[in-house]
Each structure stands twice: as structure tokens, then as C-alpha cells.
């Protein structure tokens, strides 16, 4: 990185948009100090009703700035306009939900003897470090910010180094609503994140990103006994039985591996399909995927924008080439001969189906963050379940069948934090989500988010009877 700052690229063209200096250790320390002072001062004196009202104002800001924020998401993350607008809308709904949650009752009163009152409650952790990824820059930052603020914490947010624009705009606008220091931002890569995680005044860290980076966050926070919430990677299975609604399942599979150009931790990138319908079903999926348009994000007809970087696009091509060498059949859109899609210097890839993916290959085993679907057939229910669990991840899973008994068995047996039956991808701001295994721990959204952003207390109050 040059002294002028880190280059921020437009993934649709590969060209520099601007340069943004990384926040150094003094800047991180200043942001945390401001957040800590705000937590101990004005924010601790702000009632739940007051926090709720301020969060509603933030939700209104998101709606007022909807078009501008979507344009920044398009420029920084390469998102097609319709998708970017939808994510801003979702972010606003999340803020609204936590504005209400700020006033929900917490704690319990316990039976006590004469002269004693015993109760439990929850208290904020203090300064929360919110580290957001590059695939949903604004949305996932807002998930963390809204929950932390609702429960009485202050926040220092660090967006991914590739995608700072929308979060920076939101933080700047929030300064007109929130007291000084309640929400601040720092910018940069891994080193900025390390300094933030190590700061002794940080009360907890909420991180979304790769499993490898999540491990480092957990290790660093362990030294200070600092709690963490980790939303990490996935390699999610979609299991399709012969008795499923195959048309609906095919549409869901295509959405599951191509949505956000495959850059989703919950992406359904492992298709496990009943051998009896394997050929037919893969053909349906290929036909639907081929109809998707890869193109510039600003074009209203674009379905798949670019990946976040040249390295991500090259990696997808390398993994597919490796799968071919391992004996897999690769299905590309008609007229395409390569994974990389040549367009205006951007980081574009075609949707790819790897049929018969080698069990030990990266296409089957690794999270790729690209629209690459690996397919393996099965013969029995037991084999389907074993294939679904043939991964260290456990973020999400989907099963498609019309057999009610199988619905119950697979719904109970699948080891994933999110399980979808005859559907895929449903997410609501009121439902808490998390991962299992290498996909992390901690809860985002919904009523259980309070568990990560607060700590429980037990309180005994002695008093004299009759007074």
C-alpha cells in the first residue's frame, strides 16, 4: 500500500476508485477511547426508550439515503442495483426491529425469603468492535451496529478494506443522530483489525468473515478473556430427493449458488441429488443458470455482477480446472468456454456446474465465494445425509422432499445452524441465526442477539422488613 492510502477498486472494471489510508494504532486507540467515554457518559444515561427512538431515526436515515447507499454498494461490491436496494431495505428493517427490541423486558425475579429481593438482569458489555465482511458490506455492519446500540453498547465498526464506502456514509450520517463517540469507524485490513481486537477497552468483538480469520480473532481475544461472536464460512448442502417439486428445487438451487454472484456464506454450493433424477435435475439447473446474465452492476438486466477481486475470480477458475483434472464434468453457459467472463477488465465469472466433483477436491470441500456448484448423486437416505455432513462447516442446509417422514428425519438430523425444508435462503430480522462447527458461534438478529451483546447478572437486595 502506498503512503497515499489503500487503493479501493471498482470490481466491475478493475480500476482504482480512490485511495483510503488505513487507520493506524493511534487512530484505533482514539476511536475506542471516544466510544468508551460515550459508553461511560451520555450513552449509559440514555434510557431504553431513548435508544429506541434514536435507532428509529437511523432506520429513517437508511431509507432517506437508499439510492445513494445502493450506488455505493454497487460501486464498492459490484452489486446489481436491485440487489443493493433490497439489502438497504433489509438493513432498515433490522434497525427497526432492534429499535423495538431495546424496550423488550429482560431478566427474572426469583423467589426469596423475607428481607431479600433476588433478580437477574443483563448489562451491556461496553465498547463493541464490529468487523464486517466485503460480501454484504452495509447489511452485515448494520446487523451488528443495531443490536449493539439497542442493548446499550457503543460501537467501533471496521468495514472490509475492499468495501468501505457504504458503511462510511452510514457512520457519517449517524453522527447527526447519535451522541459523539457512540458510533465510530476505523478502516483498513488485517492489521487494523488486530489492533482493534487487542485494545483493552473493547468489551466484545463481533466478526463476520472467513473461518481462518475468525480463528485468529478468537485467539487474540482469548488473551484478554474478551467474548467474541463469529459468523464464519460455509459449504452448504442442498439435498434433493426424487419425490421433490423438482422445478421449485431447481430454481432454489440456482438462487442458492449464484445469488450475490456466489459470494454468500450460506451459499448452497454442494448439490446432493437422488441418482434417479440426477441427469434430469442437473439439466434443469444448468438451463436456469445459463439464462442468468453476467454483466455490469448498473445494467438493470444484470443478474450476476463481478466478484470482489481478480484473485477471487482466478481462484474460481483454478478450482474448476482442478476438478476437471480429477474427472469431473463441467457445465458452462452455452457459448462459454471458460470460467472467467471477459468484460471491461472486471472480475467476472460465469456460473459453473461441476458434476461428479471429486470428494477430496477444493470444489467440493472449500468455500469458494463464487458461483460454482458441485454435484454428487446418492442412492439412499443414509448416503445423502453422510454427504451432507461431509464438511467441517455447519452454517446452513436445505432438503427437498414431499415425504413427511423424511422431512422430520432430515430436519432433526442435519447439523447446520440454519435448515431450510422445501425452501432456501429465508432470513428474517426477528429470527436469530448462527453456525455450527467451523461456521462459528454466537447469534445474529432476533431475540437471542441480546446474549452476545450483554452479560447476565444475578442481584440480591437485602432490606429490613417493615421499613
From TrEMBL:
Keyword terms, alphabetized: Oxidoreductase
EC category name: oxidoreductase
Pfam families: Aldedh (PF00171)
Domain Aldehyde dehydrogenase: start-end pairs: 7-459
UniProt cross-references to InterPro entries, sorted A to Z: Ald_DH/histidinol_DH, Ald_DH_C, Ald_DH_CS_GLU, Ald_DH_N, Aldehyde_DH_dom
Residue segments, region Disordered: 1-22
Molecular-function GO terms, alphabetical: oxidoreductase activity
Domain of life: Bacteria
Oxidoreductase keyword on record: yes
SUPFAM superfamilies registered for this protein in UniProt: ALDH-like
EC number(s) per entry: 1.2.1.-
Residue numbers annotated as active site: 231
Family the UniProt entry places it in: Belongs to the aldehyde dehydrogenase family.
Protein name as it appears in the record: Aldehyde dehydrogenase family protein
Species whose genome carries this gene: Streptomyces caledonius
Amino acid at each position: 500500500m502506498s503512503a497515499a492510502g489503500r487503493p479501493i477498486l471498482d470490481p466491475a472494471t478493475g480500476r482504482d476508485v480512490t485511495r483510503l489510508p488505513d487507520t493506524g494504532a493511534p487512530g484505533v486507540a482514539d476511536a475506542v477511547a471516544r466510544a468508551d467515554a460515550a459508553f461511560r457518559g451520555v450513552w449509559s444515561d440514555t434510557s431504553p426508550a431513548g435508544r429506541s427512538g434514536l435507532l428509529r431515526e437511523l432506520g429513517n436515515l437508511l431509507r432517506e439515503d437508499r439510492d445513494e447507499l445502493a450506488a455505493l454498494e454497487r460501486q464498492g461490491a459490484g452489486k446489481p442495483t436491485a440487489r443493493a436496494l433490497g439489502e438497504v431495505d433489509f438493513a432498515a428493517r433490522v434497525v427497526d426491529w432492534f429499535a423495538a427490541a431495546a424496550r423488550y423486558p429482560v431478566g427474572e425475579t426469583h423467589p426469596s425469603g423475607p428481607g431479600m429481593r433476588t433478580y437477574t438482569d443483563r448489562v451491556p458489555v461496553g465498547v463493541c468492535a464490529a468487523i464486517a465482511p466485503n460480501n454484504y458490506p452495509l447489511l452485515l455492519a448494520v446487523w451488528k451496529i443495531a443490536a449493539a446500540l439497542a442493548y446499550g453498547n457503543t460501537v467501533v465498526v471496521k468495514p472490509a478494506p475492499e468495501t468501505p464506502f457504504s458503511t462510511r456514509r452510514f457512520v457519517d450520517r449517524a453522527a447527526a443522530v447519535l451522541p459523539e463517540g457512540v458510533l465510530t469507524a476505523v478502516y483498513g485490513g488485517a492489521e487494523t483489525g488486530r489492533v482493534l481486537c487487542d485494545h483493552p477497552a473493547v468489551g466484545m468483538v463481533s466478526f463476520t468473515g472467513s473461518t481462518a480469520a475468525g480463528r485468529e480473532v478468537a485467539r487474540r481475544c482469548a488473551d484478554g478473556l474478551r467474548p467474541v461472536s463469529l459468523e464464519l464460512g460455509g459449504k452448504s448442502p442442498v439435498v434433493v430427493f426424487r419425490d421433490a417439486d423438482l422445478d421449485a428445487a431447481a430454481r432454489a438451487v440456482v438462487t442458492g449458488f449464484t445469488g450475490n454472484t456466489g459470494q454468500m456464506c450460506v451459499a448452497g454450493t454442494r448439490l446432493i441429488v437422488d441418482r434417479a433424477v440426477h441427469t434430469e435435475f442437473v439439466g434443469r439447473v444448468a438451463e436456469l443458470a445459463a439464462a442468468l446474465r453476467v454483466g455490469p452492476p448498473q445494467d438493470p438486466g444484470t443478474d450476476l455482477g463481478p466478484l470482489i477481486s481478480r484473485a477471487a475470480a482466478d481462484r474460481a477458475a483454478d478450482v474448476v480446472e482442478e476438478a476437471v483434472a480429477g474427472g469431473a464434468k463441467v457445465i458452462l453457459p452455452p457459448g462459454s468456454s471458460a470460467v472467467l467472463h471477459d468484460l471491461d477488465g472486471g472480475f467476472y465469472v460465469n456460473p459453473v456446474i461441476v458434476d461428479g466433483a471429486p470428494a477430496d477436491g477444493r470444489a467440493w470441500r472449500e468455500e469458494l465465494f463464487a458461483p460454482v456448484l458441485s454435484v454428487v448423486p446418492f442412492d439412499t437416505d443414509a448416503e445423502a445425509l453422510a454427504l451432507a455432513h461431509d464438511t467441517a462447516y455447519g452454517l446452513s442446509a436445505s432438503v427437498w422432499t414431499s415425504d413427511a417422514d423424511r422431512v422430520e428425519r432430515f430436519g432433526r438430523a442435519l447439523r447446520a445452524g440454519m435448515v431450510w425444508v422445501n425452501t432456501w435462503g429465508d432470513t428474517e430480522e426477528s429470527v436469530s441465526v448462527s453456525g455450527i462447527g467451523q461456521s462459528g458461534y454466537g447469534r445474529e438478529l432476533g431475540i437471542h442477539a441480546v446474549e452476545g451483546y450483554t452479560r447476565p447478572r444475578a442481584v440480591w437486595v437485602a432490606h429490613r422488613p417493615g421499613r
